[in-house]
Structures are given as structure tokens and as C-alpha cells.
Amino acid sequence: MSAGFDDPNLVSCAGLVPVMALADSCGLVGLVDDRLSVPSPNARLKVPALVAGMVAGADSIDDMDLLRHGGMGRLFDGVRAPSTLGTFLRTFTFGHVRQLDSVAADLLVGLAERTPLLPGADQVAFVDIDDTIRATYGYAKQGAGYGYSKVKGLNALIATISTPTAAPVIAATRLRKGSTNSARGAARLVADALATAARAGVGGLVIVRADSAYYNHDVIAAASRAGARFSITARMDPAVRRAIAGVDEDAWTPIRYPNAVWDDDEQRLISDAEVAETAFTAFTSRRTADHTDGRLIVRRVKRLNPATVPAGQDALFAAYRHHAVFTDSPLPVLDAETCHRQHAIIEQVNADLKSGALAHLPSGKFTANAAWLVLAAIAFNLTRAAGALASTFHAHATGATIRRQLISVPARLASSARRLRLHLPTAWPWAQDWQQLFHAPHPPPRTA
Question: What does the domain layout of the chain look like in residue ranges?
Fold first, then answer.
């Protein structure tokens, strides 16, 4: 046996061909030309190159070299060296990042129009917001700091869109300093995400879901102004505790979860709980116009660990641990409580990003990393759209699975009559799905 890197006609990621053709059909290059004014030549080539590298699994600038091997130069024009792409990212300012946000939003709208990306969005859709810390090391990262997680890094705020039958896609992102408050800028992000969702065909009932870090008037007002409903975990402040204490004992409804739910405070799985609701007016310490009426849906679980009882709590709170959700959802109480727990779906998006393009924030410059985050969102949405075109299974698969089965497929290039042909492995387990993805942006030639 012997080995040699000597074949100029091989490529390792043939799935990039239909994925980047899909991006082209949705106008990625035209959007970059129209929106992005970054002072660097050939942005229309560099942005797709960065996105293609991320779709193929690149998580650093140096990894962009995976676009420069074998026959890749015959498949794609304008592939640039990693050093050139790194220099390009460092020319971004905050304004340029916002321009790139606009490109990402319009591309998502185009993908929703051309692919089954958000089935059922005209009936029910969910907009989830959450932030995640991307750890950094060393002293050269602008904006890095210690936040609520006690991990040094930068803070990425993310908003996603999903439906009961569709996996989430990313509607908006913001990169923030590591020491920032979770809710900083969240109201603006919610407004941007809802505007993008409306343009992407989201209608009917729209519910904005978030955890207690976003329990504030500005976030809820942003959702209401856009015509959306809200479902936000309520902090256990005195007003919420008084409302819970006032719930009649006969109002509690027992529920049993088909799948046990992990309780962080109790550090155990729970399968039995009780749910009740009561009318509630939030933010009464603000001016009257800011008072917000809604429902307080409360889940309570019996405490088994006395060490979890907060100091000074009365008998009710010592016997039970309560989880309250402030909402104006029209759903029945049990459905509304179940719907809110499904907000955890955004954690899968965070995990997908961190297992792909967001494994690193590659630059020491803050705005370069902010642009990298937006490009990672574009690559995520393209990958999700590719999965939706390929098969029902891939429409809900993780990004790593889609890359492994549909993107990182080796192929040999051959040409005949000035046409390129990709020769892929025989007996590839997902060949039919790959062909379905390929023919979406590359319809077969018409017969005579």
C-alpha cells in the first residue's frame, strides 16, 4: 500500500456545489453588492467563500484552506487565501456588521421562499431568544470578559424562528462584550427577528419565548408592538411570589411528563408536577402606561432536597419549588406550559454553532468576530435549507449530521463537451437525498 496527494480532479466536499448554487439562486452575491460597503475589493467573492468554508466545517481562518484543494478551483471561482479572508474581516466596522445583518435577513427570506424551510409558518411560529458565551483565551480579544457564567469570553445573542414541524433557523444575531447583561439589546433583536419572520412568511400565531433574563418591559413591549404574543419565564420577585401564594389550592392540576424533565435546582429528573394559572399585571413599579396584563402560569414540584429552600421562605415555598411563566398566549394552560418548555430548542442551535463555525472566534478585533458570527448564521441557515431540500430526516438533523452525510462527500471531476460531471462514491448511503438536494438548484436538462 502507498499513498500520495497527487490527484488534481478530486474534491472532498462535493455537497458545497448544490448548497452554494442554492445561495446563488437566493441572491447572496447580489445582496452583498447592494448592501455591503466594506472598504475591501471583491466582497462579493469573499463573503460566499467564508460562508462556503463554514458550511464545509471550517471553524477558523486557517481552516478556509479546505476550499483550495484538488478540483475546487474548477468548481468555484474566486476562492481566496485564508490570509486574504482574515484581512477582509478586519476591515469591518459596526456599521458594516449591521449591513451584513441585512444581507443575512434577506437571504433567510429568499431561502424560505425557495425551500420548505418553515412549513406551517403561516399558522403557528415561535421566536426564541437566548445568549451563549463563547470562551476565549489570551489577552488579545477585544471585548472579552467575565459574565454571568464566570467564563471569560464574548457573548452571542441569538434569535431563532421555528414551527411545530420545522427545525429552528437563525433570524438575527448580535455579538456583545463578555461582561454584558443578558437583556442588553434584546428588545431591538426581538424587533429585528419579528420583522424578518414576517417577511419570511410567518403569520398567524407568533409567540416570543425567552427565559427569565429577558423578563423586562422592553422585550415584551417589542413583541407586542410587532403583533406577537409573549411567553417569558418570570423572575421570583415579591410580586410574583404574592401572586403564587394567592392561587387557590383547588386550582392546581396534576400533570405527568411522558419524558422526565431535568430540574437544575433539585438536581434530579422530575416526571410529576402540578400546574395552575392566575391573572397577573407585571411591571407595576413603572408608569401606568407600562403596566402589562397577562397570565401567570405556574408549575410546582415538591422539594426533596431541603438544602434548596431559599432563606426566609414561607411554608408554601419551602414545600414546593415553583417555576412561573408570564404570558399572553391564547393556548390552554397545559398547552401553554408545554409550549414554553419547548423554548429549550434554541439550545440545539447554540450547540450546532459551537460544533461548527462558532467553535472559535478567530480574530482579536471585536467587529471581525461580530461579522464572523453573522456569517456563521448565514452558513447555519443554508445548511438547514439544504437539509430541508434533501429529505424529511435531514430537515431535522443536526448541522454535523448534514455535513457528514451531504456536504463532506468526496467526488472526482470529469469534463465532457465543456460540461463538468461529478463522480461520487458508489453505494453512498445517502445518495438519493444528495441527488434530491443537487437537483433543486440544478434541474435536470429538458428532454427533446
Answer: 10-93+365-439
